[in-house]
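Question (not urgent): is this output format expected?
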Amino acid sequence: MTGSALRARVGAVRAVRSRGTARESAYILYAGALLAAVVFAPIGKALVGVLADSSTIVALTSHGAGVGVEAIAGGLVVVSLLVGTMRGPALRPPYETWVLAGADIPRRVTFRNPVGRALAATTLSLVVTAAVIGARLLSAGRSPLPMAVGFVIAAACWGIVVGVAWLVGQRLTPQQSRFAAVSVAVATSVGVAWPVLAPALPWAWVGASYPHGHSAVMVWPIFALLFIASCALATVGRILDGLSGPRLVAQAEQWATLGAYSGVGDMRTALAQLRPHPGVGRSWRAIRARSLAITFLVRDAVGAARTPWRCAMATLSVAGSALAWCVASTAPGQLRLPMDLAAAVVCFSGIGAWSDGLRHAAESRQSRSLYGLGAGRLIRLHLAFPVLAAVASALIGAGVAVAVGAPVGGALTAVSSAVTIVAVRVADSAKGTMPLALLAPISTPLGDFGGAVILLWQSDAVLFVAVTIGSTVAVASDAPLAIAVLAPVIAVAAGVAWWRLRRPR
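Got this back:
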């Protein structure tokens, strides 16, 4: 590329960037400050309360705390590799990406700024988390200062590794990224199950640097992590140069479209941009039985199996939620409610992968002449697969929890909670599109609250699940009581779905 052409491309990018005004920047700062005061301040206060509880110190100083840190460190690498295929750190707006990806400038020059910000974000997140844990152990007299500082250094090094793994996920093809993620997950599981292999695994070095209250600091894991982080940073330029231009542009356009739909409150269409296309089983027969119920069950099962990774992640989400519910039933003090709330939200997200039939039935409620079935009957027919899949996945997670010593009552509660979330999914599927009246601005002395109303309308099902199911599982002392409380929740969800289906569109 000639110098004049290069200057033209760079000038075009700068012209697009210069459109932002000082007023827009001031509004972003104002919105960020308001979000911090309204959202992050209460969350921070709740975390301070959890850390101040004596049961938290018991959990942080337990024998399995270091093993938990090791598992989390490995899990972060797995998540980074998978997320990189959908949204990598080397991301710019579509026009900038198209201009810079088509230039002869090395990617390490044109995309180093967003990658640098991503690495700084991952590193800062882990450093803050490690600093909070180390400060709490230090204030309780359970860890000397050198060990707490060493843990923070190890977290900083691992934050760099996680950021580079995120970039690697963007560089690899989806198949390669999934293979790498599965390999890391298997290696992490093996390291947790057989601690004798831990010194050979990098994420185990993070667990080894965890402040257990020993008088001596384990120096070798910190130096090993420093070496790994340095090597990872040295490869960033080469990884950036290997990024595919068309994939960069496609990813930028995908996330620009997602942002546009999110801006107008259409979260369902926005999240559909991330839904994978069927990659296997296109020749499988989905209609095999004469019975209508069996036909719909097989049809939904085949449809889910055509996106195997999405189905697998849904199974892991529901099974992990059931495991968390069972473990949380014996968790100390203030740790129980946050675990139950998080598990409820994760389970709700996982069951969404099996709810395509429910959404299709709700959207076709005015097409009776085409399908020959009403919307209510379509939903009842499509309900079988998500219920069976949720129960089976919850039984897997609950079975693992019972095998390691969790009470059987917690397993029954977990399965009942999964079924209840399916009922909430039915009500959410029948909600339909957002009314245009909600897009009207709501002016107040504190600013426009129209966005808060849109967010509330979009997240009503998630909030309902978190408040009802998470709180019920956390408060109920035994399985019969929890089931008795969850039964009316199912009835309420069914009533809401019935009302929404009868409401004119």
